[in-house]
Amino acid sequence: MHNDKTMIIIQLEGRKIRLPEGLTVIEALWDTGHDVKRGVGCLSGLCGACTVAFLEKGGKKVKFGLGCQKVVEEGLNVIMLPYFPSRVARYLLDVMEKPLEHLPEIYPELYTCNDCKACNICPEWINVAGVMKAAKDADYETATEHIMDCIMCGLCASRCPKGIAPQHVALFIQRALAKERLFPPNLQKRLEELESFQFDADLGRLAAMVDDELEAHCRQAEGG
Amino acid sequence: MYPDDMFDAIEVVTASREKRKQEKVANLSAEAAERLLRKFHPDYKESAFRNLRAGVNRGARTTHEIADLLEAFSDLDYSKIDLSPEYDTDVLVLGGGGAGVTAALFAESMGARVVLATKLRLGNSNTIMALGGMQASVDEHDSPVRHFCDTMTAGKFVGRRDLVKALVEDGPRVVKWLLDTGVDFDRDEAGNLLTKKAGGMSVPRLISIGDHTGLNIMKVLKDEIGKRDSIEVSEFTPAVELTTNQFGECNGAILYDLGRKRHFTVRAKAVILATGGSGRLHMQGFPTSNNFGATGDALVIAYRAGARLEGVDSFQYHPTGVMFPEHMVGVLVTEAIRSIGGHLVNARGERFVNELETRDVCAAAIIRECESGNGVTTRSGKVGIWLDTPLVEETSGNGFLRKRFPSLYRHLVRVKIDISKQPLLVFPTLHYQNGGILIDEKGETTVKNLFVAGEAAGGIHGRNRAMGNALLDIFVFGRRAGLAASTKMFNDPGNVTLNHVHRYYDRLKSLRISSVAKSPTLFPEFIVNKL
């Protein structure tokens, strides 16, 4: 079956194994009979369920990545990482007036960060240490701007010697910041219009039209 | 890295770029578009469909892949399953994506005890893969009425009007809820919600969070659900069957614990199915952009319980799914690349369709090119056409693609493909199940106490879903289902039985249907045919 494929040898979950090239770590696991479901999600590199640690051939340093995106190559030594436990603070956003002021009590460990940059192993290339520094310096806009691509895989948290979970700290800041922003005026206006039933008559009329009439109306509305 | 034998094909794209820039490809007339669809769109390929022989939708048309599951006996040994409930709750939510989490949050807010069970990890869903944005009529020049017209038009006027009305009226309200929960949508200088225009919209209506709209909403909702005391989340426990009481009303589900490899029963006063679509059934052999768990389980278990389906012969094929490199086949390339000027180019270096045609027309045109020999073949025999991404980089400035589409750029750079210099090979990818289990405007199905929200639900999007309406739909109908389900919390759920399953099986037996399938599918086995 694999006659036309180039075969490579890798170390998978501690086992030396021969398989066709071009597979991702997840596919390699499936191909070799590992019934992996726990570390599989979107298969598009967005859900963060399939974190892996690997050592490349001749490499000195262990690297980290996503199992659905990392393509196995000759001499790779790779394992899947179990989901790393991180403390998630419990807070109720809706009872806080200025939620950002509560950051020091919600995630006190943030302030023990000494910028060692061990967390900079993000598979999404986020400068996690930079985000944590900005958060510590109360530059919340910068912090959230750079954390947008975070997929909550938790790899950074697994490296932090201070036990900080950067993904949860950043998420709190994102939520708190959103909460403190001005309520959008355009939405406010639309909600008021909805409250006063401004569109009820029109929608009711459209919903009651016969098919042809509705079709003609919509086509005309689009043209206009 | 592209293999050497593909460089010639890439050269054709580079060489024809200057010439193509001057060209304009006209929009197809309504008749021409219709002809193209009939000839090449997978929804019109009669041999891929058949009519159901049993159940509520007897005689209705659906794909073989779905019909095979609906007309089959489960491989479960029901006699070995303990029907005495291990959990008793008010509301049971099945599915941990946007719709399920929203439903759970709203049911809990009304005082109901909620169990949320999901096949994978909480949040592993198609919701996080929604890149572009969400429709909501918040723009000054927009209105729910316009949104109604655009949605009906996109759905070819077969969407249920009461559902579309609910969708557009609730739009601005769920946006408010999301903002209050801590979702940070992009704003303009005045603090207004920033709206973008996309295919099929008469005015700008797409609100977004960078290029990761769904992901950033889901992160917040997942965080929020962990802070609610009355919601119990059960991960890695897919539902394999619903249960009913003596009146045929839904009153719970049988879940399968993947870790312990055992089944257990949850009894509830109302059940909300939010298990998403069916892309991983790989309809007609198409690649899919869907999550690992999207195997259409809801259709199967709800149909056995007697719920009516609607429009399960209509699917959305997103025109641009990755076709090379091999490990990314099916992964979505966002429509935005085409809306800012990316050309679709065949093997001869020609454009063959206006890139801003609707998704179904673009997809049909790509299939036409590939079937008529104008496609590019990869080493493994897959055929696709080019999406000219370097052109976008050229017109929008150096570093644009990396900045604007960071995750796509990263994923390809990892395998040494630089989309700012080399085009991407694409082919339509199975993206969305337009139909599903029919609901009313409260989210309830034709089976009492059974609610559906999200992609599993049917009747809203007609025969084609407009971009950004799916992300809206999961919150609107998730909320409605959650609220309506919570009103059942004082009911008596009755005894847990599988009578509906036996009734349905009797029907199959009387028709001499004897196929046994692993249904619901739960997990795709696609690795086997990929090698």
Question: Can you describe what's shown?
Answer:
The complex is a heterodimer of chains A (224) and B (531). Chain A has a 5-stranded mixed sheet, covered by helices on one side. Chain A has 3 domains: 7-80, Beta-grasp domain (Ubiquitin-like (UB roll)); 93-180, no CATH class; 189-223, no CATH class. In chain A, a hairpin with a 2-residue loop joins strand 1 (7-12) and strand 2. Helices cover 35% and strands 11% of the residues of chain A. With 224 residues, chain A is α+β, with helices and mostly antiparallel strands. Chain A is flat, with a radius of gyration of 25 Å. Chain B has 531 residues and is of the alpha/beta class. Chain B has 2 domains: 4-40 and 317-430, Flavocytochrome C3, Chain A, domain 1 (Alpha-Beta Complex), CATH 3.90.700; 78-314 and 434-502, FAD/NAD(P)-binding domain (3-Layer(bba) Sandwich), CATH 3.50.50. Helix content of chain B is 32%, strand content 18%. Chain B has helices spanning 7-22, 30-40, 64-70, 98-109, 144-154, 161-181, 213-225, 297-304, 336-339, 359-371, 389-396, 400-404, 406-413, 469-486, 499-510, 527-530; strands spanning 49-51, 61-63, 73-74, 87-94, 114-117, 134-135, 206-207, 231-234, 239-244, 250-257, 262-273, 309-310, 315-322, 343-345, 376-377, 383-388, 424-433, 436-438, 450-452, 457-458, 516-517. In chain B, strands 4, 5, 8, 9, 10, 11 and 19 form a 7-stranded mixed sheet that branches. In chain B, strands 13, 14, 15, 16 and 17 form a 5-stranded antiparallel sheet that branches. A 3-stranded mixed sheet of chain B has the order 12-18-20, covered by helices on one side. In chain B, strand 15 and strand 16 form a beta hairpin. The longest helix of chain B has 21 residues, at 161-181. The radius of gyration of chain B is 23 Å and the shape is globular. The chains are: A alpha+beta (224), B alpha/beta (531). At the A-B interface, helix 1, helix 6, helix 7, helix 8 and helix 9 of A face helix 5, helix 6, helix 7 and helix 13 of B.
